[in-house]
Specification:
homotetramer; 291 residues; alpha/beta; 7 helices; 40% strand; elongated
């Protein structure tokens, strides 16, 4: 029986040791399973593999029905952000320490992928954030984020003061090192270091976690992802904003960062039996006790 | 024009100084607005007011179309828990410091109530938790909670060890002083003291916040309220469980506390323009800054 | 050359699998090193070893110049508390996972102990807390603690309210689940779970860490160990107090728990090169990075 | 009877509304008490007061036996840092909201100062930190800090990785937004926002508080102020270091920030009956309860 997915794109940006042979190995396996193979453009360039058709991300979005990412969570999030609008699902194979979303070990990939290619998988959709910077009523920057939107103070410049609104309603004026708006996906990343809660991906909300807030009762707050969050720069020198590490540095007082839920979800696929909580326990080194 | 609400129940359990005259004052006002008045049974007993018809909570649920609570958040939560199944909405008038949900000052009540009685109000529905204790497959206790379900260690008895599952999936084994499962309503109460986040009432989720967890990475986690949470007592002397302060003390190892979303919502009514965030800022003493 | 320590007491309370043979092995080794051996009374009883002279703790305190503990941190703290007044130093050999203070692996003990017996060791003195419960001006209970003194609320009984004073000066009225007064030694135990800092043993201070405090700005505070701390029970049902897990349960309103630095230090000995920070990194699973 | 302090310097940098007349008022009062008055140079310049002798800080250090600061904690810390080496004690008069160390309200100053000038006061000495940046074995920058030394990541540049040593011993490799080394005086400032404990001024220690640490068990740690702390920049783009807000921006990998206790203490004077804890309760809005 042939694969449910006919046209599979292979993506693996980094020139990690062994990356080329791993990709070639996986390509051979997929062809045996009856898939057509395309190589993502940068992946091809970085690894020097030329045996397959080469597509850029937009072409993958239009032509492929599965993306197979070889790498870590960062690679997966980067490509996921770009492919979300096309609805192409993604599977992650990890050659190192397993990630939150790249959960298939390279050593096991054949056993794990076989049933998935035949349609036995769990889908794990994640909402993205659509964000923009508005200055004097004009949008001057926009970006998509899977993990978080982070407003930062300047490097050595005291606190930043931010005015937070949701759907036009005043929430709070916060003085802090910064403010993180994280998705459930991002709740296990930077927001966790800042004292934010873990948020299960099924929750339709974002967490706003202040970084080193001046007021001790300024605690993380979980807000609905149906609303529009606005962060206005009230005071502070040289503030900047990151969208999943992509930076817009030249913020001015009065600028507003607007965050909404994107129209698109990223579709991660996991093997049947995959559990978000198993991953959490492993990544956070929880003691699994007597179970 | 007459009130949208014809039959209004007056509830005000505590024999606070001035409570009787406040209730009589409000009753007079409601009658002027064209309402029929009933007095909740315990309220009548405690205040000695006999001028109106007296109903118990179940009768209020069946006969009244509004409950008017004079008291604090505790009184409001107590009566809300009982009236939820009848769908009777509640308004809270507070003679002291305003609460999270009892947001109308006694001094202003006429001005504030008049438009509300004529249908101009905001509805603020809150989900409740339906919980039970299961022993050997049998339900041995059940209760409803608006704020939280709390599993506790015994008084001077080391930690408790709890096994947490959601929808039959293993989440974690936790060693701690206890574990709080809080609704968005309860997220501003005990769970906040234990390090949990604030959760907006529009979020369909609960927060699980461990109390003094042995493992430092055992952080609060927000889970969907569509799932079924099970907490199993694994180890620890004399554990107990509270449902909004109602206690079931005689827990044994192997007992499971099951928490689901109740079929009913409590319906709080607020004046038009009421804002959850205004209340939050006031109650948590956030600095409202230059706004 | 013979051992610097002539008369060594062997202590190993628990009847752990292999405990007897470990103790016999160590005894043989110490005799070869020229030491006289005594066995602590309960240790002798629990293991059935009869080959050596048997002493109770007070006799060990008067007659021995070294205590050699085979067990974990709990055993070491228990015997340390009793031997402190006699100034007998202690060495800890651990058959399982190394502890904060029991840092010699059984597998290595001969190599590690040999130089220590000849006087090459690091001394690691730790102050103890002397605590008492005062009721109506009378001392009704007293105890010594190496880790912490913990005032607790009753099992399912809301918060406790405590009045904290130092040297007769009012510090704070705290409403919380409880309050931990921890020594530097105890700062890695319960106080850490409650949000307290790590405190290096060279610091002459205790940390007061509230458990789930009602007021969010009630943060842990480090106070000098030269002062006298008083905790008065103001309100709350069935409060109790633990001294290193030893419980005094029948506290009443108005009771005062008084904590002072004991006159005695426990003297732990470590091999030369031992580092508090190495232990901390290992026990807290800090990533040691590229160093 | 005349003042114990003969030569008093008046310091009040900011050109706050009413600052001039406040200083003139205080000057008059001090002259009546038999003091000789000098005006700090910048204060004279900013206020335009010319009626008294004018001294720079070094001259004040050599000639005056009391500094009287009119302003907030920031002004007091700034001048304290400069006068510490001369041993001149300081008193703080505050025209606005009282600070942690500027605790005399302008409205009360005559009543409060009179006994202090006659020798009835409490002395509150605070240790300062002496810090330097060492590059390739050479000291390239040095500064004194009363509150904290803060190593920061660059503005929008991921985490910084720092290697912490004390007295040449490896403590930890930390990946975080930054690391705060705070004195007891600084423990109520930035370090508190980052999760650090309060530290009583009598404690001979600093707290190391990581800002948003990657490893959740990287908790604040209190270390002795007798040791030498070294922070080495291991990785991270554009790190910088602040000494009480004075910035050294051009840090390179391999640079070491060395922190030792300064040879000098700042000497703050308070009225008899002043209490550190009273200030703490007021500033942190602790509920003072039934006391």
């Amino acid at each position: 029986m042939s694969s449910k997915f006919r046209h599979v794109a292979l993506i693996g940006k980094y020139q990690a040791q062994g990356s080329r042979s791993a990709l070639e190995d996986i390509a051979r396996f997929l062809i045996e399973q009856g898939c057509d193979i395309a190589l993502e453009k940068d992946t091809a360039q970085n690894t020097g593999i030329t045996a397959h058709s080469i597509l850029d991300v937009a072409q993958i979005g239009k032509q492929c029905d599965l993306g197979l990412v070889v790498g870590g969570d960062g690679t997966m999030l980067g490509i996921g952000r770009q492919l979300a609008q096309f609805g192409v699902p993604l599977v992650g194979i990890n050659q190192g320490r397993l990630g939150f979303i790249t959960d298939i070990a390279f050593d096991d990939y054949q056993t794990t992928l076989t049933p998935m290619l035949h349609g036995n998988y769990q889908e794990d959709p994640r909402w993205m954030m659509q964000a923009e910077v508005v200055r004097g009523g004009q949008s001057v920057f926009h970006a998509t984020a899977m993990n978080d939107v982070v407003v930062n103070r300047g490097a050595s410049a005291g606190m930043v003061e931010l005015r937070v609104e949701i759907d036009g309603r005043f929430v709070a004026n916060q003085r802090a090192d910064g403010l993180i708006i994280a998705s459930p996906t991002g709740s296990t990343a930077y927001a966790l270091s800042a004292g934010g809660p873990l948020i299960h991906p099924s929750i339709g909300g974002w967490v706003l976690a202040p970084i080193a807030p001046h007021t001790l009762s300024n605690r993380p707050i979980v807000l609905s992802d149906k609303g529009e969050i606005a962060i206005e720069i009230v005071a502070g020198r040289d503030p900047s904003v990151n969208f999943d590490m992509q930076t817009f540095a030249s913020l001015r007082h009065g600028d507003r960062i607007i965050v909404r839920r994107s129209a698109h979800q990223v579709r991660f696929l996991h093997p049947v039996g995959w559990s978000y909580f198993d991953t959490l326990r492993k990544k956070l080194h929880w003691n699994e006790g007597v179970a």
